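2 proteins. here.
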Amino acid sequence: MTFRNAKLFGTVVNWDDIPQTQLRPGVRRRVYATDEVLIAHHELEVGMALNPHRHDDFDQLVFIASGLCDYYVEGVPHRMRAGSFLLVPRGAEHYVEPIEAPCVNIDVFVPPRADFASSLEWIDEL
């Protein structure tokens, strides 16, 4: 396990400082994490390919920072706008469909997701 808190205490980091990864057409992600929590910043384009999926090991807290979208949980759409939160329970199929851009979706995971570890290499360079 890599410990991050020691490098991050007292360090200001802006989203623009974090490397961005193109996940698929229309979806870009930046990731920030401490030893206890991970935050994923997604920039989503209207018309992007949808990606229904589920996480069996953790809940997902969704925050829409800008734009407008329908966030589907178990096939039920939830209209979300800037400032909206939604808690997706573990095991529930979910996906987001942007309606108005720029749509920024910020996800919070506790504990940090191990499968996002490669997105955190920038912290080692601090």
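next one coming up
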Amino acid sequence: MEMDTKVTVHDAMTSNVLTVGPKTTVADAAVLMTRYKIGSLIVQSNSEPEGLITESDIISKVVSKDIKASDITIGEIMSKNLISIHPGCELNEAARIMAKNNIRRLPVVNNGILVGILTSSDVLMVSPELTEILVENARMQNQNGYSTDENSLSGICEVCGNFMDDLEEDDGKFLCEDCKEDVG
């Protein structure tokens, strides 16, 4: 289904982005994320982002390996080769990029300078009808076996509309754990 939204990335993005340098310790990054109630930080040395660190990165690359968070820098564990988007792009294109690449955050870059970040939550708040794109992608990934866990995948819960890392299929719908308990 092709949608003509005319809503741009600039309309939905968060322009006040918290950034850190690659030499920041994981412990300091976790403190910042907790203080500002955010799930990720953009890593940059200059104006253009060079990486992204998420709560999930901290759990999977530090905590699960019993590494002391103050002994490792985010530059060592950050996700590199970021996919970014221009602020003038249409929001439906951003949703397609996020779904195609199975990502929840897109740095917004204009002429090599970080100007914002677009998250899946931002997309849903501005244009809930784009949920269909993200949900359909989750279905396709599940059918094609791209899920990291046999029984769960990342995507939009079809009941509450929240983006979750651990959706499970229940009677043909993808549900988060809370909604699955409410339904079941």
